[in-house]
Write a structure and sequence with these properties.
single chain, mainly beta, 2 domains, 6-stranded antiparallel β-sheet, 5-stranded mixed β-sheet, 4% helix, 25% strand, disordered N terminus
Length: 420
């Protein structure tokens, strides 16, 4: 007996098209073997595609000739694909007829006149790595985490601000917030901070504070360099690309009753060199950099940076040098760096301020002495306010709206974000 046309079509995988007479003016879920007249006169419309069966078809017709003004966006069901991709696709062609055919799980739904639903956007960033810890036992101070920014005129190391990123919607971009270098007990040098990352831009962790029997007492290299502590030792260097400044040198013999050490470098300035062993001759951490990618009030809400003077927010200050004994020790650099400590009777410096990339101070040489961790880093991004960001959790109050931009703040974790 001859097969009916409908039966033959079903066997061959040709399901035919049953047109829905109702004009679609709001988001809807499509069904296989159906056609839809879609009117985007008033808004962009989203069409969710069903789970596919090989050979199934769906047809979408631009009812009012407005796809070029308000596109139609196609969203796959669950893990299904469109044109072999997991992202949404779109049609923005006036009077288009979109015929979608399901091929298989690899290619999914395909058509000749759709493309990935991406929009190019400009994103500014501030990426601060974790600050380093200072050494313990006449330890030099930790250097600040590297600071890289495209916002304003100046980036870390007082170089010109970097180029904004050109990104696209619907694409995952990685973010990592670098932790501060862990504190140490007597007698050890400090630990470098950890790198922070956004998209293709990496800021380097701060350089560790020096200790006399480790690396000759020289400070560690990093985003900003760690402070020196040994006889005729040198501060760590800021690594390239430039993100900060050098830690302080100690071009004098070690020892003496006070045993002064050098501060760590900051994003805005190097730490001074130790020139004497008398009480009070340890040197302060280098100052960080004022970056207002997030304004003063919102920085307070998000608990990032070190606020100063009612209108400035500093990041990535170096830690302060320690003193073996005596009564005076050095301050940390503005931007989350913390002061050094007097080693006897074994006091410890405070940890670097969280979400600043500040280095922690060094501490002196009593057997009970220890240093604390450097400050964790932060990633802040600024983008057009008609977009949203999803993925990695944001800080308290984030995202913020400032003028025509949104600002998203990330203070911990590793993950991806996406603009939509």
């Amino acid at each position: 007996m001859a097969l009916t046309k409908l039966t033959k079509n079903l066997i061959d995988g040709n399901f035919g098209t049953e047109w829905v007479s109702t004009i679609q003016t709001s988001n809807f879920t499509a069904e296989a073997a159906k056609g839809y007249f879609v009117n985007t006169t008033s808004q962009v419309l989203y069409v969710t595609l069903p789970v596919g069966v090989v050979g199934a078809e769906i047809v979408i017709q631009d009812y009012a000739g407005t796809f070029a003004t308000n596109k139609v966006i196609l969203t796959a069901n669950g893990s299904e694909k469109i044109q072999g991709e997991s992202d949404d696709s779109k049609c923005a062609i006036k009077n288009a007829t979109v015929t979608l055919i399901y091929q298989d799980a690899t290619r999914g739904w395909t058509a000749s006149n759709i493309e990935l639903n991406t929009t190019t956007l400009t994103v500014d960033y501030l990426i601060v790595a974790g600050g380093a810890s200072g050494g313990a036992a006449g330890g030099g101070a930790g250097g600040a985490g590297g600071l890289r920014t495209s916002y304003g005129t100046t980036s870390g190391g007082n170089v010109s601000s970097e180029t904004s990123l050109s990104l696209v919607t619907g694409t995952n971009y990685p973010i990592t917030i670098g932790a501060g270098g862990a504190g140490v007990s007597h007698p050890n040098g400090g630990n470098n901070g950890n790198n922070s990352l956004f998209s293709t831009i990496t800021s380097l962790g701060g350089g560790a504070g020096g200790y006399g029997t480790v690396n000759g007492g020289n400070g560690g290299n990093g985003g900003s360099g760690g402070g020196a502590n040994g006889s005729n030792s040198t501060g760590g260097n800021a690594l390239t690309p430039t993100q900060g400044f050098k830690g302080g040198d100690k071009p004098v013999a070690g020892g003496g009753p006070t045993y002064a050490t050098a501060g760590g470098g900051g994003a805005g300035a190097a730490a001074a060199n130790v020139t004497s062993q008398i009480d009070g001759s340890s040197t302060a951490g280098g100052v960080g950099l004022n970056v207002l990618i997030l304004n003063y009030a919102n920085a307070g809400t998000a608990s990032v940076g070190e606020q100063n003077g009612g209108n400035a927010v500093y990041y990535a200050g170096g830690g302060g040098g320690s003193q073996e004994s005596g009564s005076t020790f050095a301050a940390g650099g503005l931007g989350g760096g913390t002061a050094g400590a007097i080693g006897c009777p074994g006091t410890a410096p405070a940890a670097g301020t969280p979400n600043t990339g500040g280095g922690s101070g060094g501490t002196g040489g009593c057997g009970t002495a220890f240093s604390n961790a450097g400050g964790s880093g932060v990633v802040i991004i600024r983008y057009p306010n008609n977009l949203t960001v999803s993925g990695l959790a944001q800080a308290s109050g984030s995202p913020f709206t400032e003028g025509t931009d949104k600002v998203s703040v990330f203070t911990s974790g590793t993950g991806n974000i996406q603009f939509n």
